[in-house]
Hints:
Blueprint: E1 9-12, E2 18-24, E3 27-33, H1 38-59, H2 67-72, E4 79-80, H3 83-98, H4 125-132, E5 141-143, E6 146-148, H5 158-176, E7 181-185, E8 188-191, E9 200-205, E10 213-219, E11 222-228, E12 233-236, E13 239-242, E14 245-246, E15 251-252, E16 259-264, H6 267-279, H7 284-291, E17 294-298
Antiparallel strand pairs: 1-2, 2-3, 3-7, 4-6, 5-6, 7-8, 8-11, 9-10, 11-16, 12-13, 14-15, 16-17
Helix pairs in contact: 1-5, 5-6, 6-7
Amino acid sequence: MLMPANAVRLEIRADGVAAATFSAMASPCEVLLATTDEGLARQVGESVAAEAWRIERKYSRYRSDSVVHSLCNSGGRPMGLDPETLLLLQFASRCHELSGGAFDITSGVLRRAWKFDGSGRFPAAEEVAALRERIGFGRLQLQGNRLKVPVGMELDFGGIGKEYAVDRALALVVSHFDGAALVNFGGDMAANRAPDSGPWRVGVERPGQQGEARLLLDFERGGLATSGDTHRFIEHEGRRYSHILDVRTGYPVVDPPRSVTVAASCCLEAGMVATLAMLKGALAEDFLAEQGVTHWCLR
């Protein structure tokens, strides 16, 4: 794809780290490389940006030329899936199973009722009930690599797409660069190892305080992902409702943490565990303890 002019910004920092930054998936994105080689850093940064934009374009629910749009407008006819999309669908199936049905990539239609923009709009029960009739991962029909999406249903890979893109980006980085690197897409990140100067320093945002770190973590390798309601919520009749929806009810999960951060072997795995913890609501901490993963839970 064509690279927009000045789309990737490059800075060589005083600590000997090159930072390439750009925007994708409605998030600020950065690639940090332990190098002062400006030419190499720009090449790697632009390659990562192109990959992020490719994934965004392919799976965006807002684009008429995306795979998601084609599947959801197939008129109920089976369509062949490319290997990448099949892999994501299989991962979504695993998330659905592990969550007891609470995680469901067919639940995107609920956004028509729920507008998590900080306002107090609360949908009518009839509106939510009507949309729930169009949800159900089990109603998707997959045979081999051919998927049938029933008429009126939608797919939304937004719950796993950014984390998948992070892992893809890091793999791309290490194919071009043999030093320490970190990829960060809107707070979801992955690293191959720490620089010689020490671990990467990562901030976890204070709930309700955009741009203010509540925690500072030392991060060396693997994946790190955060799920929370700092930016997306509604307040209704004196109560705050998270954007994390339980598709089994059509309503926000009851009493979830304000944010959950999980460290795992890769970003996709970390994001899955963090999201599943949020879906547990008041039992999030118990769920995280059972998983035996390194985590930080803020209420």
